[in-house]
Amino acid sequence: MGKNNKDFVKEITPMEVDFPQWYTDVIRKTDLVDYSPVKGFMVIKPYGYALWENIQSFLDGRFKDTGHKNCYFPLLIPESLLQKEAEHVEGFAPEVAWVTHGGKEKLAERLCVRPTSETIICSMYSKWLKSYRELPYLYNQWCSVVRWEKSTRPFLRTSEFLWQEGHTLHETYDEAQAETIQMLNIYKEMAEDLLAIPVVTGRKSEREKFAGAYATYTMEALMHDGKALQAGTSHNLGQHFTKAFDISFLDRNGDMQNPYHTSWGVSTRLIGGVIMVHGDNRGLVLPPRLAPNQVVIIPIAQHKEGVLDKAYELKKQLDDMGLRVELDDNENYSPGWKFNEYEMKGVPVRIEIGPRDIKNNQVMVARRDTLEKEAVSMDGLAENINRLLETIQKDMLEKARKHRDANTYYVESFEDFKEKMEEKPGFAKAMWCGDRECEEHVKAETGATIRCIPFEQEDLGGKCHFCGKEAKHMVYMAKAY
Amino acid sequence: MGKNNKDFVKEITPMEVDFPQWYTDVIRKTDLVDYSPVKGFMVIKPYGYALWENIQSFLDGRFKDTGHKNCYFPLLIPESLLQKEAEHVEGFAPEVAWVTHGGKEKLAERLCVRPTSETIICSMYSKWLKSYRELPYLYNQWCSVVRWEKSTRPFLRTSEFLWQEGHTLHETYDEAQAETIQMLNIYKEMAEDLLAIPVVTGRKSEREKFAGAYATYTMEALMHDGKALQAGTSHNLGQHFTKAFDISFLDRNGDMQNPYHTSWGVSTRLIGGVIMVHGDNRGLVLPPRLAPNQVVIIPIAQHKEGVLDKAYELKKQLDDMGLRVELDDNENYSPGWKFNEYEMKGVPVRIEIGPRDIKNNQVMVARRDTLEKEAVSMDGLAENINRLLETIQKDMLEKARKHRDANTYYVESFEDFKEKMEEKPGFAKAMWCGDRECEEHVKAETGATIRCIPFEQEDLGGKCHFCGKEAKHMVYMAKAY
Ligand SMILES: [Zn+2]
Ligand SMILES: [Zn+2]
């Protein structure tokens, strides 16, 4: 068993040695995804998809609680629609897939596979909306989108990914702004409560905002290697699209006006974040609320009388508690092999039960997050495991927060920033002048970008840390996925 | 109120006058879908999508109960993969959308937008499968597919539609056959228990089977106008694809062999079936288990003291019973307008509550399916409404079954068949010789096709009703959507 263990772990490159390779190894060994015959397109395998289903279920409930309804807009968008909003077409046209033929016929107009759906949705909203009485429009869709990427990494950047995109219309700017922030807060709640990932929220700089947005808000998470991941965005689109698409309504004063518009989305990229925030050198570590299987029961010496019976009895108790439990009684694999397998797959709690445990009215309980293992009485086991899962969920968020805080620092000067970005990447808090040129310069010199202008501003002095001009905002800087 | 009522109904063409126009009117008036800027592609609006969500929820639960897992395969399929199975490419190549450019670059190989995913999935199965120990593979995906259609009708035939596609691999032919039939039976259960649509199940003729299948099984429903709708199919694909894609495994005897393969799907087309089986000249009639709103409460004279309070109190009682309830207290519309609106939208039960009702400790309860209306005591109302919904669900299936049976007849001769197909379309039971030529001839002469060779065979004589040769099967014939 010890031997198996070592052999197995050897197949995952330690993250300290080569983080990107560690990521690839974990993904490959845990059956989350596979590469497809089309470059940059991935297959999401059942274990990976189950994670997405749990994210969907959490968010879909929160979207509906806040009055949103799901719908479905077409996959293909005419080129002329994509071109209606100037910034938007500039941002997306270089990375879309073009359909030019239907069956044997060449199409009169090219159609793009949706990279995002603002344009097709606005063309419909323009047709539908008449009066303020119909507002707000609060719609969302779950679908896949395609963006032709030059270099791709599973979950983090792929030419096709799964996501949801909300698209809302409102009577006033204030209502649209409130919706934008409400949805960002729902994302933050999901990241922290479901994924156990702490996030910084704030506004994007003009350079980093969504193509066509008035303002983009983001949540940013810090990965194990000190790089940031943009984990979800919510856009106040102002009237940019509603004017370009001639969406108008009769307002309360009897005047025609353009409504205010938002869109917001998260994608399967979140799964990459879960891997890179919680994973270790043994593989995945999944937070209990997200884990497809929260508990795995592994019988020891399962051929001995009574072991399997007792194991199934425990499984039933845990099932009845509403937990997601797997019992692995496959005879083709040893308990040691199974320990490794479920550790690698990140199952939060392992229960071992053998003849000696049964004699002592106990089981062995191992936590995936801390790798601690202890004997636990069979009396009241289900309640104890349920409590343990909640503890693990809380501890994982706390641990990630500590890691994030330990890798967040104040910038002293541009020189200091450059050094730290090389030696100890993480979130750097700095003052910024607000100029795009300064921002471009920092990126060119260091590879780091402004992740956000956080809602929680701190006063770190009056000068821009990068160019010395008068400072406008405190920002979070980092290299990013 | 009477006036409103008439005016309103006038906008839906009576189905006896023009059934296709009735269908279009109902769809348009009830906000289920809209036409998009791309011909043949539709937008599924929230009320239509809510129907699909209920179908998804029912099926996804049954799929998981029977051991299936969800996953996601890429949207785009290389042309070379589509061509690997000869019958399949012949069937689908004429109706696929081709992606030829990614961003500004012309692709080395064209990619088709998936019309169905057997080919891309088999290419992955070929890479994954090693041993019989891994079998069966029981995977499903929820997605959209594109088939370039010349003429389209919302839900029934569109160039893009939403569906699920299950794709399984098995060690033996018998297991694959059992899976094929199991999934067909789950579809039948969904059609009858959720949609209240009775279906005939059986095998497709060689001409009508799926391109590349060994055998296709189908469920067929009869619409109000006497035309059939293929409502779901399950394919035993034998080893056609597993050989073409070189999927093989080490079997229990240590030999390499190709596994047996199934696929099965239902789509948003089911919603078209619900409309055409249950709808009437006032609009939709939704079975309670499928209906997004099962009950609508409409207050009468809602400005009078106590009316809205009592209405909300009733809503809470019904909510607590687990029912899906809407209370419409919009002051901009009259109760009469609302009666029409919710009738048209097919809400199964309407509750009216006004000052006189409150005085009498009663409410008025109207059934959408029978249009009956009666006073019901407020005591125990929630239990009574819950029971009523179950009654409506049962009655709607029964009514649809009676309609189906009344429009199912025995064929006496080819002449008799031709007459009946003209005068009184419906399901015609006939004996058939099994020859494709005979089948083609019948279709050319009458427009009717063999819907299925039903599992429940009847002996209607020894001769083919169409050509007089020796009969092989009893078949259901009909014109179809
Ligand atoms: Zn500066
Ligand atoms: Zn014949």
From TrEMBL, chains A, B:
Main localization (coarse): cytoplasm
One annotated GO biological process: prolyl-tRNA aminoacylation
Reaction catalysed by this enzyme: tRNA(Pro) + L-proline + ATP = L-prolyl-tRNA(Pro) + AMP + diphosphate
GO annotations of cellular component type: aminoacyl-tRNA synthetase multienzyme complex; cytoplasm
Location of the Aminoacyl-transfer RNA synthetases class-II family profile domain: 46-287
Source taxon at top rank: Bacteria
Enzyme Commission (EC) number: 6.1.1.15
InterPro entries referenced in this protein's UniProt entry, alphabetically: aa-tRNA-synt_IIb, aa-tRNA-synth_II, aa-tRNA-synth_II/BPL/LPL, Anticodon-bd, Anticodon-bd_dom_sf, Pro-tRNA-ligase_IIa, Pro-tRNA-ligase_IIa_arc-type, Pro-tRNA_ligase_II_C
Matching SMART domains: ProRS-C_1
PROSITE patterns in the cross-refs: AA_TRNA_LIGASE_II (PS50862)
Molecular function GO labels: ATP binding; catalytic activity, acting on a protein; proline-tRNA ligase activity; transferase activity
Statement: the UniProt record of this protein carries the keyword Metal-binding: no
SUPFAM superfamilies: C-terminal domain of ProRS, Class II aaRS ABD-related, Class II aaRS and biotin synthetases
Pfam families assigned: HGTP_anticodon (PF03129), ProRS-C_1 (PF09180), tRNA-synt_2b (PF00587)
CDD domains: ProRS_anticodon_zinc, ProRS_core_arch_euk
Alphabetically ordered keywords of this record: Aminoacyl-tRNA synthetase, ATP-binding, Cytoplasm, Ligase, Nucleotide-binding, Protein biosynthesis
EC supergroup of this enzyme: ligase
Compartments it resides in: Cytoplasm
Protease as UniProt keyword: no
Protein's job: Catalyzes the attachment of proline to tRNA(Pro) in a two-step reaction: proline is first activated by ATP to form Pro-AMP and then transferred to the acceptor end of tRNA(Pro).
Subunit architecture: Homodimer.
Stated name of the protein: Proline--tRNA ligase
Provenance organism: Maledivibacter halophilus
